[in-house]
Write a structure and sequence with these properties.
Elements (H helix, E strand, L loop, with lengths): L1 E6 L3 H12 L10 E7 L2 H11 L3 E5 L7 H8 L7 E6 L4 H7 L6 E4 L4 H24 L4 H6 L8 H11 L5 E9 L7 H10 L2 E6 L2 E7 L4 H13 L13 E5 L3 E2 L3 H16 L4 H15 L5 H17 L3 H21 L14 H6 L4 H25 L3 H13 L6 H8 L3 H12 L3 H19 L4 H7 L5 H12 L3 H12 L1
């Protein structure tokens, strides 16, 4: 059964849609639709979407508060699996155009007849069925394929599905993994040179890139090419000279056994990373996960968790050591999100990491337990941190987003939030695990990257647009945070577009 949220400010429409849902002829098959909730305003719809996560939303465009399109624009990235069906009293081409980038499934003009309503539901069901079949036959994207699918052997059918989905030219390939220290430069100089030379499927997140070279290539040949790409040419911007970086490369295998190549690449990478600073990268990853979970992109958080997980399994001491390290991580995450220990004895928490992890017998049991639990924490963090912030913090965030291009101080944001600077500083620390300055800096950089990709303005102009009057200082801050310069980001963005 699929859950449906109905959003409309007219009571007769709500009743009509609810009646048709309840009386759909296929409801008795177990594959029907039922009304999970109803909302009359945009803000009410936003809350119910976050609370109930419906499968389908029938959304009126002209509702009080936020419009239907504004609601969808706020949630479609965090809830990409929800199917939105728009309805409006007038057929307007401009609204239909705005709906397309938001992934709206259907655009209905009221009054909606029973026949139209039922046929729309039938198409939604067909879409769900197709999506489920595709997800069952091959990974959804390169990230899933490289980080999850090839961690174990593939059947011939699974491999052929993957080859077709990603247009891989060869039946064989090998896996490479590049890693750079957190404060180093971008890995793009190496990746760009390799991409120009070979057929590569890649995924980059945090400070690591993993890639598949599809073709009959020997491991030693690729290793030499990676090293040469890292050294670069005469232009120091295109090299990683003086920067701590490393790589691991596996052997050449058929696609059904790419897991062997991936395992070998990881082993080589870890052997090169072993040393006095080996634990620092792991600690930085955990700190970033704790500070950004619920705020940053969910895909990036899953990648980061996967890296932490791999580090824990690679450490000496076997599965017993891994369970101890991951118990610590999950305990910290549970407390960050639920306040399970710092919040007092009455705080409800549905997860007990120590008790649940201690009984796991092997890595296979860990895999079954960890993924749904982390997904639950991720969803809860998203709900609490984006939807249940204290009002003064929400006001301060809104103030930053409106005035980030101006000279901003903690005091001015505190005044807008009607609290003391000390109290606001504590809210940023307690709720977001960051400081006011770091939050402002991250927001400005995100805005600058959007302008770089979309505006065509110079780096100097963009620095002024995001609140930095000194372009050199902006570049310095950008490099400190991103590990690369804004000019390098612009060059890479331009190549991706063309």
């Amino acid at each position: 059964m699929y859950r449906v949220l109905i959003v409309d400010d007219e009571e007769p429409v709500l009743d009509s849609y609810e009646y048709m849902l309840a009386n759909h002829p296929d409801n008795d098959t177990g594959d029907g639709f039922f009304p999970a909730a109803r909302a009359r305003t945009g803000y009410e719809a936003l809350t119910l979407i976050r609370e109930t996560t419906p499968d389908v939303v029938f959304m009126d465009i002209n509702i009080p508060g936020m419009s239907g399109l504004e609601v969808i624009s706020q949630v479609h990235e965090k809830f990409p699996r929800i199917v939105f069906v728009l309805s409006t009293a007038y057929e307007r081409f401009d609204l239909a155009q705005r709906a397309i980038p938001l992934g709206v499934f259907e655009y209905l003009v009221k009054p909606v007849s029973k026949r139209t309503f039922f046929s729309t539901l039938d198409r939604v069901r067909e879409y769900f069925g197709k999506r489920e079949r595709e997800e069952g036959s091959a990974p959804a994207d390169a990230s899933v394929f490289l980080n999850e699918t090839i961690t174990e052997p593939l059947s011939e059918t699974e491999w052929e599905n993957c080859r077709e989905r990603f247009s891989l030219p060869s039946d064989k390939g090998l896996i490479g993994i590049l890693e750079i220290d957190e404060r180093g430069r971008s890995l793009s100089p190496v990746l760009d040179k390799l991409l120009l030379r070979y057929s590569i499927l890649s995924d980059t997140g945090e400070n690591r890139s993993i890639f598949l070279v599809s073709g009959e290539m020997e491991r030693e040949t690729l290793a030499n090419q990676v090293a040469a790409a890292g050294r670069g040419g005469g232009d120091n911007r295109d090299s990683l000279a003086g920067v701590s970086w490393r790589f691991g490369i596996g052997g050449l295998y058929r696609g059904t056994e790419l897991y062997r190549s991936r395992k070998e690449a990881l082993e080589e990478l870890r052997s090169k990373a072993a040393g006095p600073g080996a634990g620092l990268t792991a600690r930085l990853r955990i700190a970033r996960l704790r500070s950004r979970i619920g705020i940053a992109d969910e895909g990036e958080m899953k990648k980061l968790f996967a890296l932490i997980e791999e580090d824990a399994f690679a450490a000496a001491g076997g599965f017993t050591r891994t369970k101890a390290e991951m118990t610590g991580l999950f305990t910290l995450l549970v407390d960050d999100i639920y306040g399970a220990w710092s919040g007092g004895a009455e705080t409800f928490c549905p997860i007990s990491p120590a008790a649940e992890i201690s009984v796991l017998e092997d890595p296979a049991a860990w895999k079954v337990w960890s993924k749904p639990v982390f997904d639950k924490l991720l969803a809860e963090a998203s709900l609490r941190r984006s939807g249940n912030f204290p009002l003064p913090l929400l006001k301060a965030i809104a103030f930053i987003q409106e005035h980030y291009a101006e000279p901003l101080q903690l005091g001015s944001a505190a005044e807008a939030a009607q609290v003391t600077p000390a109290y606001l500083s504590r809210l940023f620390s307690d709720q977001l695990k960051t400081s006011f300055v770091d939050y402002l800096t991250e927001y400005r950089i995100e805005r600058s990257e959007k302008l770089i990709r979309e505006s065509g303005m110079s780096i100097k102009e963009i620095s002024f647009m995001v609140g930095y009057q000194d372009p050199n200082y902006f570049s310095k801050i950008y490099r400190k945070v991103r590990g690369t310069s804004p000019s390098e980001f612009a060059e890479r963005a331009s190549r991706q577009m063309h």
